Amino acid sequence: MSYGYSLNVSVTDSLVTNGLLVGACWIISNILRYYLPYSNRYWYVLFLSISFSLAAIVMSKLFLSLILVDTVHTDYIIFLSNTYWLRVGVAFLLVGCMAVICVLWYTQEEEQENRQRKNDAEKLSRDAELYKLRQQLQPHFLFNSLNSISALIGSDPSQARNMIHQLSDFLRTTLRKEEEQWVKMEEELQSLELYLEIEKVRFGHRLSTSIVKDEESLHMLIPPMLLQPVVENAIKFGLYDTTDAVTIYISVLYENDSLKVIVQNPFDPETAGPRHGTGFGLNSVKRRLYLLFARTDLVETSAKDHVFTTTINIPKHENYNR
Known about the structure:
By secondary structure, the protein is α+β, with helices and mostly antiparallel strands. It has helices at about 5-35, 45-65, 75-80, 85-155, 155-175, 185-205, 225-240, 280-295, and strands spanning about 185, 205-215, 220, 245-255, 260-265, 300-305, 305-315. The chain contains eight helices and seven strands; from the N terminus they run H-H-H-H-H-E-H-E-E-H-E-E-H-E-E. It is rod-shaped and about 115 Å long.
């Protein structure tokens, strides 16, 4: 509304007043960008809004008085004085709304940054624990293999040499996977077969294995070195308390859009009971899968008819490609 004043006067008033209000909003935005008040200090935002509203209107009146200094515009100068507090109220609403929007916006940004930092810290901690769990598996298996090589050197040097070569191939394969978080099931089975060849040298004719796999499962992704501790656990429970020949059954299936691995071994309930527990191997697998998927139901064990069964379900990884 022009209130009977010329277009030139109205436009001048609008440009000067709104320009100063835009400047006030810009300054408040930059102040709140670098200094957000605590939740119990929001009076600071109110103080800024009132101060910059008053400053904008005072400067507006001053500039307009200098620009419209002619006697022709005397009535308009009086009009400015009469509407002074109304202008301050409107300016406070505009500047205050801008301040509230800035507080909400920058608070949300700060919370997102905090969440991201927390997620990054948790990821670093999780990766460090995963790495530690993987590193703990190597010495455990390596010491057993070295003990077997030591025993074979005197009785069967050729077998000892063969075992050294197999152990070298196995360790070389695991070192290549050291930095990888996921590998194809086909690669994991190749590493597992190298491990089983070493174990077969240790136990001779007493150990045999049966591996059943479907084509689809070979392309699924799996955390590296996940199966070796499970199979090692099966060998431990299947062979350590008996002198009979034992077969370890391993099934790898693609089922319900996930990878299902079943490992079965015979056991004697009287010698392989609760006193042995599930061992470090299965506990490490459970922990690794929990860290990766935040689920505790991915590893199941059961014992029935002198057969111990370990079932692992691995959900499809987001980077899976056929």
